[in-house]
Specification:
With 130 residues, this protein is an alpha+beta fold. It has one domain. The chain is built from four helices and four strands. The chain has a two-stranded antiparallel sheet with strand order 1-2. Strands 3-4 form a two-stranded antiparallel ribbon. Strand 1 and strand 2 form a beta hairpin. Helix 1 runs antiparallel to helix 4. The chain is elongated and about 80 Å long.
Length: 130
Amino acid sequence: MNQPDNINISFDNVRMFLTWSSSFGTLQTARFSAAQAYIDKECVKYMTPLVPVALPKFRNAGKLLRSVKIVSAGRIYYLSEHSRYSYYIRSNHRHGGNPQAKRMWFEPMKRQYKGAILRGAAAIAGGRAK
């Protein structure tokens, strides 16, 4: 976050000065970065039980689950082959090795845990979750 400029305001006989702390930009950037890292880690943690897993008898069992990477702030990728297909396919994932598996696993995770993730991120960033 960029450091805001100091402001001088004059109106009639009233003068006001708004002076920002010299560490404001650096401090807020660090807080926002820490909050984003928390959000990424919590999303991966809560999505993991919903990711489809092949039955153990197949050679790709667990490959999708192990392929998750936080590439950059706010970008979580599943890097195994067919991960996009597994995410969007309209099939019953429960027949595989994970009975809790769902398609588009980010969406049900978000519905269920959004409040908890936002409260944690707000506490790290020094704010309040709405």
